[in-house]
Amino acid sequence: MAGLWHIGVIGGSGLAAGIGIEHAQEIEVASPWGLPSGAVTTGTLEGVRFTFLPRHGLGHTISPAAVNYRANIDVLKRCGVTDLVALSAIGSLNPAMAPGHFVAVDQFIDRTTSRESSFFGPGLVAHVSMADPVCSRLQAGLIAAAKKQGATVHQGGCYVAIEGPQFSTRAESRLYQSWGAAVIGMTAMPEARLAREAELPYGLLGMVTDYDSWRESEAGVDAADVLQVMARTIGTAREVLRTFARQLPKSRSASPIDRALDHAVMTAPDHRDPALVARLQAVAGRVLG
Question: Domain 6-288 adopts which CATH fold?
């Protein structure tokens, strides 16, 4: 059944400000999972409903491990978002993926250790499939939009998510390369996992800001260099989003991810924790009743 698009975007705090959202409203949205990273900005972009959430808070005050990923996804679901696009700074483990390039990530390796990675838990158990963690439809749209803006964009690449906030050692960087990872970052996990549990198709367009620390003859990653590349690419990222919005089909056809929870909930109805069921109403109310 066809419907309307409502694109959620998680990215840097400056992304929404410069993109030219029409009829923009900044709204504080409460979540039973705690405080999200900040208020959402909602409005229209090229006639399509968009809602933005700054992943690290206004002014980048929240470190990757401290982001309340559950609250962020829950809030976007409450806003009526149908699909979720993430924009993230990433380091490169692949010589062909140079600073200034974009990568449409298609796989993940999760090396995070301290983050809440599921909405479900004791009293209500569910297992969603993560074999194909990104939405191919969103990825194709992001790739086409980036190409239209003249950006160098790589179709596919495995993202290794590390805990941070420190960058990798050279030994770690070479290890991740040996695993087949192409890029590295600190925020896509558990974001992608939680999006799947919330039945939100997820696409990630990474902006390469640096080569990770695998090049023996070069200096390691430096935050100042990362910021310089980000400053050069953020304008292109905004235009990619505008082009992506412009190229979306008039109506949104259903995605299989819209029903990711159909067979995922394992706990029998009469054994479910009522408090957890209540917390999950925005995320999983469709299957929990």
Answer: Rossmann fold (3.40.50)
